[in-house]
Amino acid sequence: MRSPQNRFTASHVLMVEPVRFRYNSETGASNSFQTAPPSAEEQAVADEAVHEHRMLRDLLVSNGVHVTVVRCDERTPDAPFCNNWFSTHPAVELPVAEGTRPAPATLVLYPLLAPNRRMERRADLIAMLRTKYPRMVDFSGHEREARFLESTGSLCLDDANRVAYAALSPRTDAALAGKFGRELGYDVVMFTATDAAGVPYYHTNVMMFIGHGLAGVTLEAIASDVERAQVEARLRDGGLEILAITCEQAARFCGNVLSLANDRGDALFVMSATACDAFTPSQHARLQAHGTVLSSELTAFERVGGGSARCLIAELF
User: Fold this and answer.
1) How far is CA 6 from CA 187, 265, 292, in A?
2) Which residues form the domain of 110?
3) Looking at the 3D structure of the chain, how many domains does it have?
4) Inter-CA distances, 182 with 42, 137, 264, 281, Å
5) Which end of the chain is less enclosed by CB atoms within 10 A, N or C?
6) For 248-277, what is each residue's pLDDT tens digit?
7) What is the spatial distance between Cα 117 and Cα 53, in angstroms, rounded to a whole number?
């Protein structure tokens, strides 16, 4: 199936291969998905993470996705979750009062909550990206104010309709989400979403994904009737079919799905084996009606890092 939003669906991605992947104590307080392994298992976890990362890379390449891979700095345990410190955006015409204004291809840098994650914003990677993205918007200085917005972790983007969805949390600041919207030309829909224990989801992308005309969203996690209705209405107004995900399914990373296109323009949904197993047969049928499902084992990243397929892949538009 061809992607209905091909211009806003990446077929080229960046992945950062782990080096000594391990539990990050600086992020554990705000990420309830993380679990520290026993010390005797740490090396096995690190080895398994490299294997899982390479299997995901190979799955993407074999299905026609262009993948650029770099190795992480050993000081940055969460660097494989590379979609949190930057995002890229294709050149567009943005509406303004006088008509439209051109916005060139853009690189955005973001403020990260954990100090040891800020080192992931490497000068060499930024220089590599700048060759393709002449405009750069840098929000990273807001770290000094203890205000954070962690890219497409914090923001679930409906690029075709220019709407950004943001579940507020310690890593997703409302004012910064609004600033992103003004700078990039998105309407921002903010809400509060909590897991079954009442804890705010650390990132929007663990409870929500959008792509290929489909929106997977954990509506039951939005306690406010007003906010839930607003999210649902904006998704439907954008012509998106809603796939309801339960909190139990979100805990198994069914919200952490990424839509991509391959080099033929075919629509793909990338997810972990955990998420794939957690979707019901009827949900799989609806997914397959919109694109091809690709799944890969990512247990080490999910259990120790608290992130899954979408977190490991950064789109390069």
Assistant:
1) 21, 7, 15
2) 6-315
3) 1
4) 43, 11, 34, 40
5) N
6) 999 999 999 999 999 999 999 999 999 999
7) 19
Q: How far is CA 143 from CA 85, 139, 156, 214, 232, in A?
A: 12, 8, 21, 34, 32
With respect to residue 1, please indicate whether it lies within any of the assigned structural domains. Answer: no
Identify the CATH number of the domain in which residue 226 sits. 3.75.10.10
What is the per-residue pLDDT across 220-251, written as a single tens digit (0 to 9) for each?
999 999 999 999 999 999 999 999 999 999 99
For residue 300, give both structure tokens: 């080490």
Residue 73 lies inside a defined structural domain of this protein: yes
Please write the tens of the pLDDT for every residue from 103-116.
899 999 999 999 99
The dihedral over CA atoms of 172, 173, 179, 184, expressed in degrees to the nearest 10, equals 0
Does residue 230 lie in a domain region?
Answer: yes
- Residue 95's pLDDT is 79
**pLDDT digit string (tens) for 200-226?**
999 999 999 999 999 999 999 999 999
Q: Burial letters for 160-190: b for 16+ Cβ neighbours within 10 Å, e otherwise?
A: bbbbbbbbbbebbbeebbbbbbeebbbebbb
Q: Which helix (H) or strand (E) holds 236?
A: helix 225-237
pTM metric for this prediction = 0.95
Pairing assessment for the beta strands 12-17 and 66-71 based on DSSP bridges: parallel
Nearest to 307 by CA among 18, 9, 2: 18
Supply 231's token pair. 């999210």
- Report the C-alpha gap between 225 and 142 in whole angstroms: 32
